[in-house]
Amino acid sequence: QSVLTQPPSASGTPGQRVTISCSGSSSNIGTNYVYWYQQLPGTAPKLLIYSNNQRPSGVPDRFSGSKSGTSVSLAISGLRSEDEADYYCVAWDDSLSGPVFGGGTKLTVL
Amino acid sequence: QVQLQESGPGLVKPSETLSLTCSVSGGSVSSANYYWSWIRQPPGKGLEWIGYINHSGSTNYNPSLKSRVAISVDTSKNQFSLKVNSVTAADTAVYYCARVAGPPRRYYFDYWGQGTLVTVSS
User: Fold this and answer.
1) Which residues of A touch B4 (CB under 8 A)?
2) What's the Cα-to-Cα distance from B27 to each of A13, A26, A34, rounded to whole Å?
3) Which listed site, B19, B27, B36, B50, has its alpha carbon 20 to 30 Å from B66?
């Protein structure tokens, strides 16, 4: 049972826009920054979004993050086959005094 | 470019101790700017933070694992290590080491090792 809640799956066709949600509480998302990671099959997670909505160098601007209250969303526009991966949200939790992960969302490109 | 590499036994017997080491290159575990962390992922499941350590040996562990886990750092070898005792099949997972960056409460994992699968089985 993950502290942050994500839908287990999402899907879209090439070129579409998809969003992945992540909900938490006042002790994590409500008061701290959220980070998104992309995990391609058989590889380590890669930082995709930091500080709620910032992209590291090299991450396409097709990826964007937003936050509202105790929920965040990751949006992927112009969906491509190479976007097929698992996506995880992470935030610091003040009650845990450590980072907490969402359960992950498997994105399928149809 | 910072690189991390996990090493250790891929098979551990139930009730024994799991021991892994993370070797760091292109960066220093002695840096006061970063923490060094372990994260695991059971097969087909999500990620779980285990704990982290800084250059001086100060640690922070996930409460769910705290009683069985110890992370240490060896600055002379530029490595940090993980021990999990009294393992069960539930500890079977891919174990990742990662560098922790960012200011307090905004920590994030910026560099990861490739991960190593540890299976707990007799």
Assistant:
1) none
2) 41, 35, 25
3) B27
Q: How far is A91 from chain B (nearest CA, A)?
A: 8
CA distance readout (Å), A30 to A25, A68, A94, B38, B46: 6, 8, 10, 25, 22
CB burial of residue B32 (10 Å; 0-12, 13-18, 19+): exposed
If you measure CA to CA, which chain B residue comes closest to A52? B106
Q: Which pLDDT tens digit goes with each residue over A16-48?
A: 999 999 999 999 999 999 999 999 999 999 999
**Cβ <8 Å between A103 and B46:** yes
- Residues with Cβ within 8 Å of residue A96, at least 6 apart in sequence: A3, A27, B62, B63
Compute the CA torsion angle A51, A62, B46, B16 (nearest 10 deg): -70
pLDDT tens-digit map of B12-34: 999 999 999 999 999 999 999 99
A97 dihedral zone (left: phi>0; alpha: psi -120 to 50; beta): left
Contacting residues for A65 by C-beta, under 8 A, at least 6 apart: A34, A36, A49, A52, A53, A54, A72, A73, A74, A75
Contact at CB, B49 and A99, closer than 8 angstroms: yes
